[in-house]
Amino acid sequence: MHFRTRGELVVDRLNVALLFVIAALMIFPFFYMLVVSFTSYREYMNTDLLLWPKTWVLDSYRYIFSSKQFMQSIGNTVWITVIGTVIDLAMTSTMAYGLSRQVPGRKYINFMVLLTFLFSGGMIPTYLVVKATGLIDTSWALILPGAISAFNLLIMRQFFMGIPNELTEAAIIDGASEMKVYTHIILPLSKPVLAAFGLFCAVGHWNTFFDAILYLNNPDKWTIQVILRQIVVLSDTASSLKPTLMAQQVRDQHLPPPETIGMAAILVATVPILFVYPFLQKHFAKGVMLGAVKG
Amino acid sequence: MSSVIEETVSRSVPVSLKRPSKSLLSRMWHMRFIYLLLLPGIAYFVIYKYVPMVGIMIAFQDYSAFTGIWHSDWVGFAHFKEIFDDPDIVQILFNTLYLSLLQLLFAFPVGIALALMLNELRNHAYKRTIQSIVYLPHFVSWIVVIGLVNTFLSEKGIVNSMLGLLHLPQSNLLTSPGWFMPLLLLEGIWKETGWGTIIFLAALSGINNELYEAGVVDGASRMRLMWHVTLPALRGTIALLLILQLGHVLDTGIEQIMLMINALTKDVGTTLDYYVYVKGILNADFSFSAAFGLFKSLIGLILILGANKLTKKFGEEGAF
């Protein structure tokens, strides 16, 4: 772009190098988790600084994949992710479309949505409502109470309003119903937004943790993040009885150590995200930009 | 088009001459399918956002699950008094503000610095690769982050291995009270800083290139360009994000803390959000906890409105 002095060149190279180091720090934990998860019991216990296993073993993976609870939680999470994302998108887009039309009373509805930015009932009253609506211990508790994000709703409405009005009016003059306008004009033109938000919602559902802790007591309903907590966090804290029990078990049966099991479990739970990530990336910058353009 | 015209017409005529309500009704009937589309969303906001707001009244009751919200005894501000009498409140408030301050002082500037560094990269393929990598941690869950940290800091973990190789004393940072907040901060920086750059980069990409060219013609160095062109362009975005941050000074989130905290770090790690959870859900003290949550929300509301006013005073746009 312009002439660079020697000093600027040095700064440039330092910048490139420093960013390389930062990126390496970001990616290293993923690499370490891969390495540890494939390490054998003996090697994990005897190596001081483990950076590359001499032999790659599948013990930890065998252990978690043979766990009925682990597999069941993956099934639960897939279900919640798929149904939850569909419901999120359906509810958000229908409401956003409704608010983008010149319908009498929309100002009040808009205000009702905006107010939730400033004030909310908080955890306890929300918990009581979820309980009163009979969702405790059902997967719906992880889907319905968070179905619409007010922020996404307003961005999507803004996007719909950007679609030329002439298009909608022409369709209506040609005899199309409102429903048809929504499904045949608005939705097809909004694919980029729907893709971006859909992927955000899906990642959100896949990573749901606190709601699951809050609303689900029945272990059969638990999601993958709750099971991960059982495996990687509770087995480590000083306050829990579990580590001693688990350590005992490990010594007796020569099971893989908790750390390698934990890393394998984390890897399996992260693979779907790593898998959609390249696809995600194409869309999310757009999604965030929509948010950044203040609406 | 007709509805637009109708609206402008109805807005321009004086109130007394406004169309009779019959036409409003017919307009509403005309758009009945739109209302049908709005219905699920409205029901959602009423049930899961507004009913809980009404439910806040249990903060003024001695709520019991057996008698329910309509038959519990009213106790006025007793639970709010309880909050101020709670011997732990000072420590909890301190923990909350301390964590927020750490984030404001360290995490926030790191995000801006990273965005500026990315913006200076000339090689587009390299820039895109680095961006993909630094965005990635945002998409993993807190359990994954804390699971990794636990493994890094475990007895056989990489931190202790390094310390051992350097002949330094090994220690367990996970149970050390002094390390609790710094660890939360570092985890947060690792997970969210890259993602946070997106909004800054969006603002930077909007800068008019002529400003740089004019600067170069005038003989400005890269550093001067950054100081006089790039940073001023970020001012609005920085101000906006600062307001949002200030409004959330009391929100520390729960997931990260509940996963990190243990018996030895309980005192230094309990924040307002976490306390609401412990009291309300674990100890089933619904009324006290709801009062505590309401107290927190009200202060948060005042903070966000105040911060917004302040930024407007400094000549920035503000959030609303």
From TrEMBL, chain A:
Membrane topology (UniProt): Multi-pass membrane protein
Domain called ABC transmembrane type-1: residue spans: 74-280
Record key words, sorted: Cell membrane, Membrane, Transmembrane, Transmembrane helix, Transport
SUPFAM superfamilies: MetI-like (SSF161098)
Location(s) in or outside the cell: Cell membrane
One GO cellular component term: plasma membrane
Transmembrane parts of this sequence: 16-41, 78-99, 111-130, 142-160, 181-206, 261-280
One GO BP annotation of this record: transmembrane transport
Keyword check for DNA-binding: no
PROSITE patterns, A to Z: ABC_TM1
Family per record: Belongs to the binding-protein-dependent transport system permease family.
Annotated protein name in UniProt: Carbohydrate ABC transporter permease
Species for this entry: Paenibacillus rhizovicinus
